[in-house]
Structure prediction request, 155 residues.
Amino acid sequence: MLKSVFHTSWTVQNLDRSIGFYRDLFGFELIGMRERRGSQIETVVGFPGAELRIAFLRIPNAPCGVSGHHLELIEYRHPKGEKLNVRTCDPGSAHLALQTDSIDEDCRRLRAAGVTVVSDPVAFDGVAGKAFACYLRDPDGFTIELVELRAHAAD
Prediction:
């Protein structure tokens, strides 16, 4: 029986660059790194001769029930992969939604840091009030959605 979501994983071109992006701009905490090679990892990923560098990150002090979800970043040293088109409209693409309490401030800060911000925050009617959302891109083009929930917020 399933218990929870353990982690979300993305393959990245440069692990050190991606760690810096999530740690320095979003406040993720690096909780561990591993290098994997040999028959076990070759079997799991299905690539003979696979060599991987892996980092696990988490959001520190996340609310109870959310803190167990990790972001896993994998750099394949071998085999080297090809860059995919990861547009959010393409089947098979994914995005990571991060909740914030200051979406406007975060968008300004991230844009000033050179992050690609797709749009300013947009308001949506939600069950518990207004939800504000915007999309960003990480260094590999993955979509990050910032979400702020505001109960009883005015337009």
In short: Residues 52 and 76 are 5 Å apart (CA to CA). The mean pLDDT is 90. The two ends are 43 Å apart (CA to CA). The first strand starts at residue 7 and ends at 11.
